[in-house]
Design a protein that fits this description.
The protein has five helices and eight strands, in the order ααββααβββββαβ. The chain is of the alpha+beta class. The strands form two sheets. The protein has a six-stranded antiparallel β-sheet with strand order 3-8-4-5-6-7. Strands 1-2 form a two-stranded antiparallel ribbon. A hairpin with a 3-residue loop joins strand 6 (174-179) and strand 7. The longest helix is centred in the N-terminal third of the chain and has 68 residues, at 29-96.
Length: 206
């Protein structure tokens, strides 16, 4: 009886030992050492790549700065060129003020409205525009009065339903044109007469 109890006790201990070993596997130092080694290798590789990434970032930043500076300088040069042309346009217009009206004319001895506009644009911008006020519409993109900018054209329908008069917009509702009564003069778009017959603005297509 004592031997049986002893065997049972030993069997129970064996079972418990097996269960404990199954729930808590043996420590695997080699696996942990391998994982740690891999970590060190990855860290070393990352440290080696950092200067390269930093160099690439620096080059990219410099590239962006160069592109930004180039764009800035190009815009500045373009604005300066436009400003110079604006000054040249005003200078040319002033040289025409007081020129008498002459139907079919396009010189400072005598000019009509389209001849004046065409001659000024040819001199300042080197652009060949159509000869008549009606055909000048085809050289432009039509815009509203609110969109007008310095140098745009202004069209009027004074005779019937077709464009029959044209001038150059100067800003602040002022425009210059060859009037059949007064020759080349500056007038105000808000004047009753010009408000009545105003058709559209036109921005030259270049």
């Amino acid at each position: 009886m004592y031997m049986k109890q002893n065997k049972v006790f030993i069997a129970i201990i064996f079972v418990l030992a097996f269960i404990i070993n199954g729930c808590h596997p043996k420590h695997q130092p080699s696996a942990q050492r391998q994982t740690y080694t891999e970590y060190l290798q990855e860290k070393r590789a990352d440290d080696e790549e950092k200067p390269q990434r930093q160099s690439q970032k620096t080059r990219w930043t410099k590239h962006q700065e160069d592109a930004s500076n180039s764009k800035y300088h190009k815009n500045k040069e373009r604005k300066q060129a436009e400003s110079n042309k604006d000054d040249e346009l005003m200078k040319e217009i002033k040289s025409w003020l007081g020129t008498p009206y002459k139907y079919g004319g396009d010189t400072k001895s005598g000019t009509d409205c389209s001849g004046f506009v065409r001659s000024v644009y040819k001199k300042v911008y080197g652009i060949d525009l159509n000869r008549s006020a009606r055909d000048l519409v085809n050289n432009t993109r039509l815009i509203s009065k609110d969109e007008l900018q310095y140098g745009d054209l202004v069209f009027f329908k004074i005779k019937g339903n077709q464009v029959s008069h044209v001038g150059i917009y100067l800003g602040n509702n002022q425009f210059v044109h060859a009037s059949s009564k007064n020759g080349v003069v500056i007038n105000d778009l808000t004047a009753t007469y010009y408000t009545k017959y105003f058709y559209k603005g036109g921005r030259i297509i270049r």
